[in-house]
Design brief:
Elements: H1 2-15, H2 33-46, H3 48-51, H4 55-90, H5 97-127, H6 131-151, H7 153-158
């Protein structure tokens, strides 16, 4: 019984991991929303001249990036500390299933909060742009993806 619970906790942690995925050649295909937001914000700031961003837009994007990073750190810390608590509880002589279930719920809630805050940040940063700037971003992303498809071994192999 203890082994089954330990395996379940391990699988849950494996599938709910939210480490910031670096991506391949700058595309965002397989990464969590937290990584997508950070890449998008970095892309916008890096290409601010080509996109014609105003100083106010750049400042707003940087502020959003700062607040999102802070929120992500807090949520990831909750996930990691809950994981430690789960491991500790799993190594008790008498495993308390109710406590483990409570910790799993807490971990899932922190994961959900991380996803929701990351999606909100992504939407907020895109809402800073004008319609013309959004079109430029889409075009630049398509060009970047096209270049990646031609040169990246990962993309060629996985059809990204």
């Amino acid at each position: 019984m203890k082994t089954k619970i330990l395996i379940m906790v391990g699988l849950l942690f494996l599938f709910s991991s939210v480490t910031a995925f670096a991506g391949h050649c700058g595309h965002e295909g397989d990464m969590p929303f937290s990584g997508k937001f950070m890449m998008k914000a970095k892309f916008l700031i890096h290409n601010q001249d080509a996109l014609g961003l105003t100083d106010d837009q750049v400042r707003t994007i940087r502020d959003l990036k700062y607040e999102a990073a802070k929120q992500m750190i807090e949520n990831q810390a909750k996930i990691q500390t809950t994981e430690l608590d789960l491991k500790k509880e799993m190594h008790q002589d008498a495993v308390n299933l109710d406590k483990i279930n409570t910790l799993l719920d807490m971990q899932a809630d922190a994961q959900k909060a991380l996803s929701k805050s990351s999606v909100k940040a992504l939407v907020d940063v895109m809402n800073v742009l004008t319609p013309d700037q959004k079109k430029k971003v889409m075009k630049m992303c398509q060009e970047q993806k096209s270049m990646c498809m031609k040169s990246c071994r990962y993309c060629k192999r996985h059809g990204k």
